Amino acid sequence: MVLFTTAEETGLAGAKQVDRSLLDGVAFGYTFDASGPVGGAIIQASWHDRLDVVIGGKAAHAGFKPEDGVSAIKIGSDAIASMRLFRIDEETTANVGSFVAPGATNVINPEATISFEARSLNEEKIDKQINHMIEVLEKKAASAGGTVHTHHHRLYDGYRHQADTPVVKRFIEACEALKIPVELKKTQGGSDANIFNALGIPTLTCSVGYENAHSKEEYIPLVELERLASLIEEIIVR
């Protein structure tokens, strides 16, 4: 079976809409969507969560009676300053992506919206990181007399394949038959493979030979394209 999906770059949207019944009987699969030389394969990919936050404060005139106000901006910035962010450990990252609080300079700002993300190769670690961020936000809001509303959404699950599983073994055997060096890798990114693995279909993301992904300088050498075609054929016929 060959499956073409859409909107991978905008949150794996196409793969998420696939009718699972169409894949009945599929033992395992491959997606071709990783950078680097042909022969690379992603055997472990991260869980990815998003956290959207609305902080409520209290408006007041910043010049006449600022003490009557509760600044949503300050609550949010204090919370961010107290969080563990960016590189948490070798498997986990977290980021604050946006902080929006429009208003006039003479008003204590009553509302701010903040968006965070977390990624980890370990499900327990990503859960711990999200809970940590929510806890910090709630504590800072409560201590300042404000409110916080959080929406936690899992964008996709991670996966991990051992080298002796059928999906990996066939890939390695196909590469060896073509004398293509094999590199088994981990990634903090996501692909359609995350969705298919979550559906119970072991899926491997394979490198296709392109470089400088997501830039104006992205390219793929013709020799890599030819090698990729040969590898796909070898995987199919084995």
Describe it.
This protein has two domains: 13-45 and 158-237, Zn peptidases (Aminopeptidase); 47-156, Alpha-Beta Plaits (2-Layer Sandwich), CATH 3.30.70. The chain is 30% helix and 28% strand. The protein is built from six helices and ten strands, in the order αβββαβββαββαβαβα. It has helices at 13-16, 72-82, 123-144, 166-177, 192-198, 222-237; strands at 29-34, 40-45, 47-56, 86-89, 92-100, 111-120, 147-156, 159-160, 183-187, 203-207. Strands 1, 2, 8, 9 and 10 form a five-stranded mixed sheet that branches. A five-stranded antiparallel sheet has the order 4-5-6-3-7. The protein starts with 12 loop residues before the first helix and ends with a helix. The relative contact order is 0.24.
Short description:
The protein is an alpha+beta fold and 238 residues long.
Label this structure with key terms.
elongated; 238 residues; five-stranded mixed sheet; five-stranded antiparallel sheet; alpha+beta; Aminopeptidase; Alpha-Beta Plaits
**Tally of separate helices:** 6
**Which percent range describes the beta-strand content?**
25-35%
Return the CATH topology of the largest domain.
Answer: Aminopeptidase
Helix content: 25-40%
Which CATH architecture of the largest domain would you pick? 3-Layer(aba) Sandwich
How far the N terminus sits from the C terminus, by CA atoms, comes to: 15 Å
- Rg is 23 Å
Which residues sit in consecutive blocks of at least 5 with pLDDT less than 50? none
Mean pLDDT, all residues:
92
Q: Give me the count of strands.
A: 10
